[in-house]
Amino acid sequence: MIDPTLVLQALVSGVLAAGLYALVSVGLALAIGVIGIVNFAHGEFFMVGAFFAYQLFVSFGIDPVVSLFLVAPALGLIGALIYASTIRFVLKAPELNQMLLTFGLGIILQNLALLVWGGDPRTISGIAYRSIGFQIGPISVGLVPLASFVISLALVLGLYWMLARTATGRAMRAVAQNRIGAALVGLEVDRVYLVAFALSALLAGIGGVMIAVIQSPTPTIGLAFTLKAFAIVVVAGLGNIRGVLFASLFVAIAESMVATLVPNGDTLRNAVFFAIIFVVLVWRSRRVA
Amino acid sequence: MNPAAKRRTVPWDVLGLLLLIAVALFTPELLRALFDRASVSYLSIAINALSLAVLALSWDMLARTGQLSLAHAAFYGAGAYTTALMLRHLELPMWLGIPAGGVVAVLFALLLGSLTLRLRAIYFAIATLAFAEVLKSVAHHAPTSFAGGNAGMNVAPLFRPTFVAGEMERWEVAFLRNESYFYVYAGLLVLTVLVSIALQRSRLRHAFTAIRTNEDVAGVMGVRPARVKLLAFMLSAAGVGMLGAVEAHRIGSVLPDQSFAVATTVLALVTPIFGGLYTTLGPIVGALGLSSIQELLRRTFDDGYLIGYGVVLVLTILFMPRGVVGTLGNAWRKRGAGKPRAKRTSDDATEKPGGEA
Amino acid sequence: MHRTVRTLFTLLALIALGAAAAQGVTIGVLTPLTGGAAGTGQAQRAGFELALEEINAAGGVLGAPLAIVIEDTQANPAVGLAAFEKLMTEDGVEFIAGGFSSGVTLALVESFRTFQPIVMWIGGAVSGIGIDGFDGIEELIGQEDWFFHVHPWDYHNVEAATAFVADTGSQSVALLHEDSAFGGPGSAGAQALIEGAGLTVPLREAFTSTLLGGTGDFRAAIAKAAATDADLLYWIGYDSDVVPLTSQVRELNYNPQYIFGAPPGWPTEFAAAPEAQCVTGLIGFLPNLPTPEAAAFTTAYQAKFGAEPDNYFSALAYANLWAYADAINAAGTTDQGAVIAELEAGTFRSPIGDWSFEPSVVGKHQGFTTDLWLVFQYQDGVREIVWPIEKATAPLVSCR
């Protein structure tokens, strides 16, 4: 009854979809997971990145493959500016204050985008690779999902390496573990946070460009990805960058399987995703204790 | 500052509650006397503000135990769907749906709370968010003949005042309807405030604070964190469940995306932080403040009024890190510190954010 | 303190007096200008503003300039309700226009009934007809004297879409639909109609729209459609689903003869995207509609906003306001009975052509119906009208 080709395709699609999930999660994993800033405006960083890629395409005909290298640093800069002008002042406050602050920032960014680009979906039109799938027997492997998988793999490993091996990365982990202690041993705590937050925004910029390629940028496009990214980062375990990849794989494959094997399964994607998140979190908390 | 001194101070919380009741009782007629037909519109805005206040204060009660819930849309939606389902399948008086909505929300809170007892901080938050998303999907995928599926369900209004031609104007009918809803929402807020004050005055308050500050230490001190946290969860859900039910009647429908909107959860969290956490007054001030600010902004600017709203949030948290009530309360205490009446305004301010009961 | 309060009230009273003293007619507009549905609301606003400018250039209404007050509903029922009651009691309007989202419309029903202004409503297409145990907008207020519905009802949309599907000569149809009140209830009706026309529907499958929490991965649903190898892929979703859906159909190597979509709008600039080629879509208005009205509207719109009227809600909003202006002018008064009589009797201008109000299944006043709908096909970057044949600018071509 069940078509084996469909199952195989679901598996391939699921594995590749994990790439996008990991891609939108790495930046957040750094902000929350490593340095402990709960950033409710992270989704708006995706959105801004997506619109930047769109605008660069419309105004200058720059392909997203190229504009990636302009948008990501631009988002990093915006992240740095936002950190220096606002977030810096709430670092010592309870994390709820960070939530309110970043929620306010998110509203500002979203409605600025609405003023600038309007509410209608925009499209990066002139790119052929969005529709390309490599046919391997009866199975199709999408070029864009494949690319996002490779990029996210590179980013996750790169970030992991940076945190483990570089001075900046070690400083970040030190600050995350013990801010006062880190200051005592001579680390410039504020600067470490600045770099980490900017890097997190930069990574969101990369995710945003990818979203602009596969979808139509709108001012509200960030939310769906952000909710899932938050969940993935938390399930992966705070500070566990490689865990992001495994968590993404697990939920994305499960989603894809249910969406394929169950009638009207696509509408169960979010239920499957969040049910897994819920069960994993609860199960883990009970096992540990 | 010490408990003995506290007992002798003026019961500001009870006075405040009485004031709230008095103001609420007279608000509709006062608005009508002052603004004539425009009172209909102002009541509508006031109802939305009261709704936000119930949501925010309920959320805060749970937050006092350190549990940052992202599940309040689930309680709201559970209440809304309960009353809609009862209306559709049972021959019962319509108003029963409101307490029933509260009860169902409490049951979900009990379920969620007992499953997430050992989760802390953001692990807890994400688990509750996931729970709400799953519940939304359940409402969506329940059999269409049972819960309406993707089209949702109609919900009849609680009040339908009749228009008598020649004896009244049409806006007066709208006034009567809004007045009735206003009292229901105000009643819900009074109930929530009562619960909140009772919690703040009881020994539970210290248990809440102890758990929030350090659950393990609280356990050692003789507090039973599991029981206390579950109790907070249920009390927090009750008001929101009833609110969801009332609102379903007022807006005439339940729909999965509308009744379980993430926006509900976000507002539940943002409002108390804005107003002042872990207090009774803070979330209420937050709700009334945010509603007024948004209304003023939308009446002032044609475009981009929500940018101004975002700016207000950002500036508030930068310059009033303990929220409006927490920060102003602190300033007030400092100012009055040298004066003989200082003790009247001082409350048990041993904890960080907020302070005023 | 006392003086401040008194000054404030004096000020408020003056404002109220000022509003009352203004001679002209004011029309209240409710539409979502922020949030996820802002695109449609902004399109409506553009249509209203253009019509307003033209109406006032042509002498206004009853000899005075017409005014509109636009209120943002945020597509939120409670906010929409407060906005409507503001229009009725603070702005003192007697005519309501605009509208979007069935959730908001359902929230307004009680208050509509109370105030009974004339409501000429563009949005809220959920009729409720054919959904057991659910009362839609048409069933609830369609019979009211004061309610005029401009946009076709959901069954009109489905009727037009299925008529096109049958006309393509396809044998089998795979039907994908988003699963909210917009695309859900209509899809069963669509299947019945298509099967009634003698075609087979091997698959009817729901998906979660990107507008409502989906992340735009439709591959599972598309793979199922591909497995049926149906001649025609018919999908109902939102405009933000267009790009992911059409590109993933290609990526998964599904080559139906026709890819046919019925979202409420199409993303700007999609025409130039390679995956747009041969995609067909249902739409209420196109700038290249070969009629003088359409050309005039498109020219004026471009001059005012510097862009093409891409979203057909602009055209509907424009028609909405002009109908008010023409009916009130014909009545020579704002008296409700007289205006209703003129709205019922009159024929009105629109970028789509002349239109009038006729009864629908249970409704008394229905503006556009099945006839509104056009099907276009992206052919080398241009949206050619391919259906109905009498309005076609180019023949329909197969994707294969």
- Give the proportion of residues in helices of chain A: over 70%
Strand line-up across the major sheet of chain C: 7-6-8-9-10-11-12
Largest sheet of chain C: 7 strands, mixed
Gross morphology of chain C: globular
Order of helices and strands of chain C: HEHEHEHEHEHEHEHEHEEHHHEE
Question: Roughly what fraction of the amino acids of chain C lie in strands?
Answer: 15-25%
What's the CATH architecture name of the largest domain in chain C? 3-Layer(aba) Sandwich
What is the alpha-carbon Rg of chain C in Å? 22 Å
Average pLDDT score of chain A: 93
Rg calc of chain A: 19 Å
Concise structural overview:
The complex is a heterotrimer of chains A (289), B (357) and C (400). Chain B has helices spanning 3-8, 12-35, 38-63, 72-89, 97-115, 121-141, 144-147, 170-201, 204-213, 215-220, 225-251, 256-259, 262-275, 281-300, 305-319, 323-336, 342-345; strands at 153-154, 253-254.
List keywords for this structure.
heterotrimer; A: 289 residues; mainly alpha; two-stranded antiparallel ribbon; 11 helices; 75% helix; B: 357 residues; 17 helices
If you had to describe this structure to a student in words, what would you say it looks like?
The complex is a heterotrimer of chains A (289), B (357) and C (400). Chain A is 75% helix and 3% strand. Chain A contains eleven helices and two strands. Chain A has a two-stranded antiparallel ribbon with strand order 1-2. In chain A, a hairpin with a 2-residue loop joins strand 1 (133-136) and strand 2 (139-142). The model of chain A has no long low-confidence stretch (mean pLDDT 93). In chain B, helix 13 runs parallel beside helix 16 and helix 14 (281-300) packs antiparallel against helix 15. Chain B is 74% helix and 1% strand. Chain B has 357 residues and is mainly α. With 400 residues, chain C is of the alpha/beta class. Chain C has two domains: 2-153 and 293-372, Rossmann fold (3-Layer(aba) Sandwich); 155-285 and 375-391, Response regulator (Rossmann fold). Chain C has helices at residues 2-21, 38-57, 77-89, 102-115, 137-141, 154-167, 184-196, 219-228, 242-251, 292-305, 312-331, 336-345, and strands at 26-31, 67-72, 95-98, 118-121, 147-149, 172-178, 200-207, 232-236, 258-261, 279-283, 374-379, 382-387. In chain C, the strands form two sheets. A seven-stranded mixed beta sheet of chain C has the order 7-6-8-9-10-11-12, sandwiched between helices. In chain C, strands 2-1-3-4-5 form a five-stranded parallel beta sheet, sandwiched between helices. In chain C, helix 11 crosses helix 12 (336-345). The chains are: A mainly alpha (289), B mainly alpha (357), C alpha/beta (400). At the A-C interface, helix 1, helix 9 and helix 10 of A face helix 2, strand 7, helix 8 and helix 9 of C.
